[in-house]
């Protein structure tokens, strides 16, 4: 499909800016194709902000970075009424949330009332301020970051807020070879020798057209059932494996099944297919479930972590065998 070629060009654009981090670049495009919000978690210096900014540049969309701090107020995000000097009337001034792509930097540093202000925006693509509801841009996408290392002065995101993110992506340090390339590119930029000038021709309108194509992906009944079985397994782990009794306090809700469906369709579309396979589902499952399951104290004590549990679920749930009709 021509649209898939355009998204391939977008990925090349991102690769011209970001060294390595291939899983991050792929999942950012999945988010773009679904309109699903993303939580990026990793140590400082891994180009999280740069990647989000490059994504916005690649589709020629409006971009706004919001630095979340403890003294931030809801009005600083959604906007507020301002008294006009000449007329004496109140005029609503939109906040930074009114952009196509919003980077919520260090979101866990904002107090709960500010985090709550994002709930309506992320869930309904609208904000209510001064008694009036205002729609957000059609493309609207929140990409939030948080630092897992420094927790002083932070406010952990509540489950309701976490559930609004379609994907939770964990970032790791680059390989030595990739870090060497980062150094070389930095020197090239310093001496004006950076020739990475590839730009994507995608526009927000084309992204919306691609979203319609993704929504029309074929998903067979066995694959649909496989998605549901994977998600509901988080609520009945002991039935699948008695050794996992009381590992989870809370399993994933049906919103996780919806997120898995949308993400799997986008992943299959990016692979050049118009149908979803179990492999597509497995590829997206960790990022969909990672932030939606709550481990028990016993699980932590026995060395379980979210990704290990998700991998075990993939091993335990039977993979459907698809015939040519499916």
UniProtKB/TrEMBL annotation:
It holds the Pfam family AAA_3. Residues 34-175 form the AAA+ ATPase domain. GO terms for molecular function: ATP binding; ATP hydrolysis activity. Keywords: ATP-binding, Nucleotide-binding. CDD domains: AAA. SMART domains: AAA. InterPro entries: AAA+_ATPase, ATPase_AAA-3, CbbQ/NirQ/NorQ/GpvN, ChlI/MoxR_AAA_lid, P-loop_NTPase. Belongs to the MoxR family. This is ATPase AAA.
